[in-house]
Amino acid sequence: MGAQVITVTSGKGGVGKTTVTANVGMALAMAGKKVVCIDADIGLRNLDVVLGLENRIVYDIVHVVEGRCRTRQALIRDKRVPDLYLMPAAQSRDKSAVKPEDMVRICEELRPEFDYILIDSAAGIEEGFRTALAPADLILLVTNPEVAAVRDADRVVGLVEAMGKPTPKLIVNRLKPDMVRRGDMLDTSDVLEILAIELLGVIPEDEQVIVATNRGTPVVLEERSPAGQAFRAIARRLMGETVPLFLSEDGQGVLGWLRRLVRSGGGR
Amino acid sequence: MSWLDRLRGQPSPRETAKQRLQVILVHDRSDLSPGLLEVIKDEIIAVLSRHVPIIAEEVRVTVTQDARECRLVADIPLGNRHGRS
């Protein structure tokens, strides 16, 4: 038993893997779960910065793999929530420094102590991708509603299935409801129809994410942020709750409610 | 998308994106390029023509998909012995 290992991946880079890992990890911890986030993007570490923990790194995952510290020593505890830990990547090494079997071993060691282990995968489909996927019980595939990102996501679905891993669950990140309404952007339903995998969540484009990343305080800590709400909903779904999907084309809050009211009135 | 484009009956960028993705993914998933499909079509025509009369110019070889399953579909109209082909 022990922790569920969840690997966050994508095909294309820059679609928000690290943001998803940090926020979903923190949301699970806010809900009282014991969580460790592992940065598997060796050489291009970022999860520490998004979580705002970059100044506290002493040891990293490569030190663990090379036996230069104990696994526990490479874990940084986030003081904002009860039970969130980060295992940072090494910045000065390359992807070959951690092999798939190393990742499996680290996860096996951490499993008994945690409820969730989240792995932030490197972009692309090379060595680092296989390392991040090796211990996964569940794979979250992040994409943006645009042609290149969806195409690359489809490639990942095929590769994951070829590896004999469970079919990934989809997270559509940075959806702009206004653009969808104008017919200028792919909607979640389009992406789902094309990829034909299960949807776990939709995160609306939200400027607060950039503000949060600048500060090093994940947006999920902002009560009112639409993206933060979407991340909390994803965490609850991972914990087995049924939470309605953020599919509303009108956004949340009072404005969205008013829009829906006006539209339903006008339709009759 | 502007109202003028809409008035002209232009497909929306959303529709265009979806259609482009569908075409791209048929080829990505099956690893069959449009050029290779032409080659396959010509060879099917050559083989079948030895046994039955077919209407070569109406033969269609396409890849279809249902969820994540791809299928190579050949539509081969038969000519009749006396008249066409």
Automatic annotation (TrEMBL), chain A:
> Which GO BP terms sit in this record?
division septum assembly; negative regulation of cell division
Give the record's GO CC terms: cytoplasmic side of plasma membrane; cytosol
Query: Where along the chain is ATP bound?
Result: K12, G13, G14, V15, G16, K17, T18, T19
Q: Which GO terms describe its molecular function?
A: ATP binding; ATP hydrolysis activity
Specify the domain of life of the species encoding this protein. Answer: Bacteria
Q: Name one Pfam family in it.
A: CbiA
Alphabetically sorted, this entry's keywords are:
ATP-binding, Cell cycle, Cell division, Nucleotide-binding, Septation
Q: Which residues form the CobQ/CobB/MinD/ParA nucleotide binding domain?
A: 6-219
Q: Is ATP-binding there in the keyword field? A: yes
Q: Which InterPro entries match?
A: CobQ/CobB/MinD/ParA_Nub-bd_dom (IPR002586), MinD (IPR010223), MinD_FleN (IPR025501), P-loop_NTPase (IPR027417), ParA/MinD_ATPase (IPR050625)
Which family is this protein grouped under? Belongs to the ParA family. MinD subfamily.
Its biological purpose is as follows: ATPase required for the correct placement of the division site. Cell division inhibitors MinC and MinD act in concert to form an inhibitor capable of blocking formation of the polar Z ring septums. Rapidly oscillates between the poles of the cell to destabilize FtsZ filaments that have formed before they mature into polar Z rings.
What is this protein's record name?
Septum site-determining protein MinD
Instruction: Write the gene name.
Output: minD
